[in-house]
C-alpha cells in the first residue's frame, strides 16, 4: 500500500517556507487507523527501552561526563553500536525490500545538509554535557527518582516550542 503525501499549503511569495515545509512531512506515516489501545505496544517497548538504558548505565550522569571528558569508551561504544545497527538495518530494509508489520512500503529520502544543523548540534551537545541528559533518557532518569531532571524536560519542551515559534527567523 502506498502512502500519500498531502499537498503543502501555498504561501504567496514564500518559496523558502514551502521548501522547508517539505522537510517536516512524515513520508512513511501509516495511513491505517487503529484503535487507541494499539498504542500500548509503544508504552511497553518504551518501558523495556528505559530498563535497558538504566541497566547499561546510559542514563548515568557520571557516564555522560566521562564521555565528554574522553575518560571512558563506554558511551562511545553504545553510540557506535547503535549507529552500526542502524546502518545494517537500513541496508537490510533496502536490500530485501522489507515492509512494515502492516505491509506498507518503507522509503528512504535523501536529507539536505544546512548550517542550522551545526548550530543545533552544538547547542544540543552543550546542553547534553551540562545536564547529563539527552531527550531519550530523560524519562528513564525521572523514573529512577531523579525528579530534578523534570527541569531539564521542561527546558527541552520550552526549547522545542521556541524553535517552532522562531523557525522562520532562524538560519537554515
Automatic annotation (TrEMBL):
Signal sequence bounds: none
Assigned keywords, A-Z: Membrane, Transmembrane, Transmembrane helix
Which InterPro entries would you find in this protein's record?
A: DUF6691
Transmembrane region(s): 42-62, 74-93, 118-140, 146-166
What this protein is called in its record is: Transporter
Amino acid at each position: 500500500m502506498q502512502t500519500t503525501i498531502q499537498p503543502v499549503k501555498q504561501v504567496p511569495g514564500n518559496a523558502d517556507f514551502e521548501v522547508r515545509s517539505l522537510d517536516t512531512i512524515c513520508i512513511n506515516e501509516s495511513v491505517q487507523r487503529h484503535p487507541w489501545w494499539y498504542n500500548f505496544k509503544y508504552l511497553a517497548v518504551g518501558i523495556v527501552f528505559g530498563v535497558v538504558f538504566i541497566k547499561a548505565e546510559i542514563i548515568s550522569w557520571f557516564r555522560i561526563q566521562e564521555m565528554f571528558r574522553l575518560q571512558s569508551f563506554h558511551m562511545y561504544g553504545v553510540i557506535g553500536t547503535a549507529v552500526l545497527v542502524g546502518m545494517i538495518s537500513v541496508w537490510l530494509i533496502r536490500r530485501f525490500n522489507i515492509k512494515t508489520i502492516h505491509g506498507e512500503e518503507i522509503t528512504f529520502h535523501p536529507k539536505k545538509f544546512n548550517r542550522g544543523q551545526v548550530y543545533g548540534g552544538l547547542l544540543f551537545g552543550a546542553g547534553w554535557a551540562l545536564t547529563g541528559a539527552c531527550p531519550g533518557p530523560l524519562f528513564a532518569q525521572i523514573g529512577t527518582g531523579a525528579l530534578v531532571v523534570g527541569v531539564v524536560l521542561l527546558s527541552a519542551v520550552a526549547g522545542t516550542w521556541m524553535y517552532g515559534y522562531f523557525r522562520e527567523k532562524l538560519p537554515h
